Amino acid sequence: MGKIIIYEHANFQGHSKELTRDVANLKDVDWNDCVSSVKVIGQPWVAYEHINYTGRLLVFEEGEHSFVGKEMNDKITSLMLITENLHNPQITIYEHNQYQGKSRVITEATNLDRGHYDNMVSSHKVQRGAWLLCEHSDGSGFCYIAREHEHLPSYRAINFNDKLSFLQILPLYIM
Description:
single chain; mainly beta; Gamma-B Crystallin, domain 1; 2 domains; four-stranded antiparallel β-sheet; G_crystallin-like; Beta/gamma_crystallin; structural constituent of eye lens
């Protein structure tokens, strides 16, 4: 379904390791904080700054990434494979906690910064696909991966209440 090859140095140099499953702590496979480039085959992968899929994140779609970027170079500590079917995505966002208040069904990348829902969302339900939820309309700031069938009743749990400004569908992998 998908694999990632991680490299010790930029431009696919140095030692490498192939992974086909999630790794909550790269120390467990002797690769903590030493990833500088990656190759992705198949479904997207999410790289996290801290163990157990926490901290800053970076999404790698299928292809060759000769440098993971200054912000994440030698800082990747956990990796997660996106296994969802990424076709026909759908998420419902809600104005208040516990899926209360106004709601909106979203099926495409959406910049809330230009509409009624900017900085007003407090919960969501993902019907299909996987989504990158971002604090700022340019995709920066705090980001969160929302996965198929996830129901998050309160953004307070992730310190994200009333901060959502941008939703991006994770990259499509066409078989």
